[in-house]
Amino acid sequence: MSAYAHVCCAVDGAPARADALRLARAVAGEGARLSVVHVTDPRPVMGPETPTGPDGAGGVEGARAWLEGEAAGVGGDPVLLVDEDPAASLAGWAATEGVDLIVAAAHHDRLERAFVGSFTRDVAHAAPCAVLVARPGVPAPQGPPDLVVACVDEASGARVVDECRALAGRRLALLHVAGADGLAGLLPGSRSGAEAEVPAWLAGMRDAVGAAEAHVIHGRGAGAAEEWAAERGAQVVAAAARVDPGPVALLGSFTTHLVHHARAHVLVARPPASPGAAAPA
Question: Which helix or strand (DSSP H or E) is residue 125 part of?
Fold first, then answer.
């Protein structure tokens, strides 16, 4: 039985969509509604990520026919949205339809993510719910993930852990990187990946949610977290997004690094709604 009531898988014509579809099907399980959503641009512009129908015809009708086939392959409901702003359109639809989780694929075009911002990244910062990013080459779990690593800090940790509890099945590890600003590796006596004492706030968070593990490591931000999770075979790594990060703040950030480099799927949790509680995304 899925912990989610409504899972949405966002797809475009790129090959990476197959990863997202498999992951969404696995997470939704048998109990959740699964919607397969594509946002098509009403303008007559075709590109490598613009799907066409089986006969090669483009436009709205071509996209609709293509989407029906994609949704049928995973037993989902096709939803076609027509809008010039795909991320905003999907986020608005998800809020209206009560979506609990959005699944999307990670894309790798360097020029796109450096200067424009990928669709997946934009969705992760606009969505009304958590976004699970399907990393290429990472198998979809057969049932609940064996290990979910929640990257937490004192401000945003509670929200990240809440999202992870809905996804985690067997092990949930809370991980805090000391010196996430990149200075920890320069501290005397510290080394990347070395574990430190668990502070009271993290111990309290662990005890409150019943998580069996809490760890603090020295390292350089997301890179240290990603390495730690990979060494332990984590299937999902989670972190929070900022409320209003701005286009420049997204680049090189903690969560964005995980989205593009983690060797696990990445759960991007919405940060706490209280003022001043923005997370280091």
Answer: helix 119-126
| Torsion 8-12-16-17 (CA) sign | positive
The SS3 call for residue 93 is helix
Write the single-letter amino acid at 143.
G
Domains and CATH numbers, the chain: 6-134 (3.40.50.620), 147-269 (3.40.50.620)
What contacts 231, CB < 8 A, 6 or more positions away?
none
pTM over the 0.70 mark: yes
Angle between helices 221-231 and 254-261 in degrees, nearest 10: 40
Distance separating the N- and C-terminal Cα atoms of the chain: 31
Per-residue pLDDT tens over the stretch 18-75 = 999 999 999 998 889 999 999 988 876 555 555 655 334 567 888 999 999 999 999 9
Q: Are 121 and 256 in contact (CB under 8 A)?
A: yes
